[in-house]
Design goal:
Order of helices and strands: HHHEEHHEEHHHEEEH
Number of helices: 9
Radius of gyration: 17 Å
Number of strands: 7
Strand order of the largest sheet: 4-3-7-6-5
Largest sheet: 5 strands, antiparallel
Strand content: 15-25%
């Protein structure tokens, strides 16, 4: 069940999961309800689909040998109490996106979805800026009409991200959604992950000074924790 949600992406329906796993629908519904109750899956805000839950992220990241997951969750819980936007943390130490802490109250894009089209996501572009040397090898597919698919434009975008330490996505992966992402550093200065805030397009933008400062402050609290 969990692999199906990770592969198919946030918002996948119970019917799609049952078909993908070749599990009888009644059995799939029962298993999915158990997984939601235990926090391994979360229902999307409209209750029509499923996304990976916090316990899935904690389990996966713990398997990679990281200890301070609880501290990350504490920082994120405190931040979520101050905003209605979705917040999540990713790691990309090895150039691969991993969700460290997902938002239980918002539909968060899965790591596999970001990895397929990093150029369409704020945190994906952040990873490309700090951890990719293969920009010219990317398949710049159009996810929406707003997705950045021109190579030169992507290079210019990456340069802006490195200069401002701020990544922005405006309806590039989903119509109606925008996102901001800022780098998270380890105890030294290397960028090892990203803190992402997503919400309704028009309300989330780099011009919102309060939101940007809110993210930068949170990223500083997360320094050395992922």
């Amino acid at each position: 069940m969990l692999e199906a949600v990770a592969y198919l992406g946030a918002g996948v329906t119970a019917k799609q999961i049952a078909a993908h796993t070749q599990v009888p629908p009644a059995t799939a519904y029962r298993m999915l309800n158990y997984l939601v109750a235990d926090g391994f899956l979360a229902r999307t805000p409209d209750l029509s689909g499923f996304a990976l839950g916090r316990r899935t992220s904690e389990l996966a990241y713990a398997a990679s040998g990281s200890e301070p997951i609880r501290a990350v969750s504490q920082v994120l819980d405190s931040m979520r109490a101050e905003t209605r936007h979705g917040l999540y943390v990713t790691s990309f130490r090895d150039g691969t996106v991993r969700i460290v802490d997902t938002d239980p109250d918002h539909e968060v894009v899965s790591a596999s979805t970001i990895s397929r089209n990093p150029h369409a996501h704020a945190v994906g572009k952040l990873m490309l800026a700090y951890h990719s040397r293969r920009l010219d090898e990317l398949d710049l597919r159009s996810v929406t009409a707003h997705t950045l698919v021109d190579g030169l434009a992507l290079h210019a975008e990456i340069a802006r991200i490195l200069a401002s330490e701020l990544s922005f996505e405006n309806e590039e992966s989903r119509i109606g959604r925008a996102a901001l992402a800022v780098p998270i550093r380890e105890a030294g200065s290397d960028v090892v992950g990203g803190l992402c805030l997503q919400g309704v397009a028009g309300r989330v933008s780099p011009g919102n000074v309060d939101l940007v400062e809110f993210l930068r402050s949170g990223a500083e609290e997360l320094r050395g924790l992922i």
